[in-house]
Structure formats: structure tokens, C-alpha cells
Amino acid sequence: MRLFAPEIAPVLDLVDIHGQAIATSQPGRLTLLSFFRDAACPFCNFRIYELTQRHQELSERGLDVVAVFSASQAEVLRFAGHRPRPFPLAADPTSRAHEVYGIERSLWRKLKAIVTRVPTLIRGLRLVGLAGLNTGNLMPADFLIDGRGRIVEAYYGRDAGDRIPLQRVESLLRQDRNRRAA
Fold this sequence. Notes:
Protein name: Alkyl hydroperoxide reductase
GO molecular function: antioxidant activity; oxidoreductase activity
Organism: Rhodanobacter lindaniclasticus
Oligomer: single chain
Number of domains: 1
Domain Thioredoxin: 3-174
Helix content: 25-40%
Strand content: 15-25%
């Protein structure tokens, strides 16, 4: 079942791919909790690349990022974690965390992304190789969680490559900063 703002975000017991505990909310900061499909997903790996490139700027503006993959630790290390990332990557091999947050499955929406998002698919395949063609049917989802543990924004992908626009994240960062300043 989908979650909505301003619900309290379900608490997850996550550890990163190096065994360190992960907090999904920090006082005074927003957390982008991103649920990814499996670790070889080309769309997912391209988004990880984008978040890595923008991380310093977004972090300075008050954003923490947590990425959760429906994959084993070894698979996350092989694909998304083969390079150091400035934010934690978590493996969710049983998809339990994905279920708690109401992440959906859809073969149709996966196929839609493959057909309609060819440039992103190609960029992602450059990152993961042909293994990216053999992925599951989970859809992506992003949640912005405030420092009190409340969902500020819940974004369920319309297809396998659909993520919350980073412009929307920036807008919510500005609103949060203005709210705290007032």
C-alpha cells in the first residue's frame, strides 16, 4: 500500500553494504530515501551516477541520500558500489523494506521505460553492461523525509526509469530551509 505525506515514515533497520547502520532521518536535514530496482538496473545506476555528481551541492543545502536496492550485498557491491559513493547504499535482498514502503511491481511499466527512455537506458547500460537487460519488475520510488521522521514527499515511479525530479527536491529543500528560518 502506498504511503503519503505527511505520514510518519516507517522505520527501517538498514545497514549499508559495508555493515554500518543507516539512519533515514536526521534532525535539521531532509533525507532522500530512494528505492531502486535490482543492482544491475541501468536506470537505477544512471540515477546513482546523477546523485553522486550532485551530492556535494545537495548535501550542503541540507539533503542526505540513502539508496536501497532490491538485491544482495554482493550484487550492490558489483554494480552500484564498485566505486565509492558519498551516500550509503543498502541491500534489501528479500525486498522487505520495499514492501514496507509499498513499492510496486509492473512488467508493463518496465517495458514502457525501455521503449520511452532509450537515451537513459543506453547511458545506464554503459555503466552496468548487458547484465542490465535481465532485471526484475519492481518500480522505483523516492521519499523525502524530514528531521522528525515525517514524509514530506512520496514519489512512486510511473515506469522503471521515473524518479522524483531533482528540481522538485531542490524546491523542497528551499521550502524546508525557509520553514526552519521562520
